[in-house]
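Table 4 source record.
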Amino acid sequence: MKNKIKPYCFAIFLGIYLFSHEKIISSKISFFLKQIFIKRNMILVLFGISFFNFCKSSHETFIEEIQELVEQEKYEKASEKLKEKLQFPKDRDELLSAEAPESTRIIEFSNDRLKLVWTEDQKIFFQDLAAGENNSRSLDQIPSNLSLSQNANYALVEYTMQASGGCRYVAISLKDSSLSYEAGAQVSCKSRGSILPDGSKIYYFVDDNLYEEKTVEPRKPVLVLQRKKSYHLFLI
């Protein structure tokens, strides 16, 4: 009986076959799962790249549109598009207030961009973004304009005078109520005045003549530069 396979040999052969077959199936399943994982990651990567390229191309398209408008000397249209882009709300934007004021807000920053000042109807707000300080003051009427000192601690507020059509200036402190001084002259609403960082003096034009005025009583505007002299200096 040389050709007969012994039972224990057959059992060993069957065991080896089943083990090998199981390893092959396991290897195939593992390879299949790896392929799925790789393909899924590739899809995510490609999606991310496509999204980035879309954002980039959108920004580049906007820049190209602005450049084209500038080349065509359509400056007003280019300016309008830029304003729309800048004014479009973003996720990180912070609301100044929950309700919109009846009049248009006037918004100004200090020179270092760390202090923010804005108006809402007959009220002016001060915010120190670095120090976390906040303050607000009531105003005589709705302002038509305002000029900040370099450090934004003081403001020269402009009010329109309905009867005469001119404007008046009031110098105020934004951090507290230590200063509230009305200038002694009526000015043109087309020009803007200025105030020193310590709030001690204001400057403004009347008929193209430059005046200086201390923010203390009695009110005494002082002419510092006449129109003819200013033209002479300009020509030099």
